[in-house]
Design goal:
Helix content: 25-40%
Distance between the termini: 8 Å
CATH class: Alpha Beta
Number of domains: 1
Strand content: 15-25%
Radius of gyration: 16 Å
CATH architecture: 3-Layer(aba) Sandwich
Strand order of the largest sheet: 2-1-3-4-5
Bound molecules: flavin mononucleotide
Number of strands: 5
CATH topology: Rossmann fold
CATH superfamily: Flavodoxin domain
Order of helices and strands: EHEHEHEHEH
Length: 184
């Protein structure tokens, strides 16, 4: 299986990355191919709403940035792992920009013309209690699951995380993440 992990935290060694890395470690242990990308390392412009992606004349998007390399990876992945910290009640801005650019997957009737990876895993981490941000998990499940027709493997939700390595105080979350990767 070909696993593509996308991390939305600017803290490269933070809690979100640690959980996503644990999923990936599990996946690698059972022989899957894994690529991990942090959107903060990429140039991802804001969608400008030009609707060029709806003309049928271009494959993805006219904006010439790192999404051009990411689009084919997203549609050929067997499983996407998306991880973000909660920033002011939502995913990080970089991560949202990344998802806005998925608009290119839709045709002029807003039907899917490209199908992003078959399965998905979400990872969310927050300073407040884990259950306080169910709305973010619901958001992912609506867009990835219902709208983009991907199959949910697991929503991994971690709370009470402030310092960059607080996740180490919750080994059960890291174990769950690794197990989730192993079971892919
Ligand atoms: C700009 C910013 C906004 C944040 N907003 C929230 C928030 O609304 N709710 C919350 O519980 N935690 C919030 N946090 C805390 C982070 O979600 C939490 O520490 C998370 O685990 C950080 O993940 P990371 O270590 O992967 O960067 C915020 C942190 C920052 C830097």
């Amino acid at each position: 299986m070909n696993v593509l992990a996308i991390i939305g935290s600017p803290r490269k060694n933070g809690n979100t990355a640690a959980i996503v890395n644990a999923v990936c470690r599990g996946a690698v242990a059972v022989g899957h191919e894994v690529e991990i990308i942090n959107v903060n390392d990429l140039t991802i412009h804001d969608c400008v709403g030009c609707n060029a992606c709806k003309t049928g004349k271009i494959e993805y998007c006219v904006l010439n940035d790192d999404m051009q390399k990411l689009y084919p990876k997203i549609v050929t992945a067997d499983c996407l792992v998306v991880g973000t910290p909660v920033y002011v009640g939502q995913m990080t801005g970089k991560m949202k920009n990344f998802f806005d650019r998925w608009y290119a997957f839709l045709d002029e009737n807003h039907q899917l013309r490209h199908f992003p990876g078959e399965k998905y895993i979400t990872v969310t981490s927050s300073g407040g209690p884990a259950e306080a941000f169910q709305s973010l998990t619901d958001y992912f499940n609506y867009w990835l699951g219902d709208f983009f027709q991907m199959k949910l493997v697991k929503n991994i939700v971690a709370g009470t995380l402030q310092a960059v390595d607080d996740i180490n105080k919750q080994p059960e979350i890291l174990q769950l993440a690794e197990k989730t990767g192993r079971e892919l």
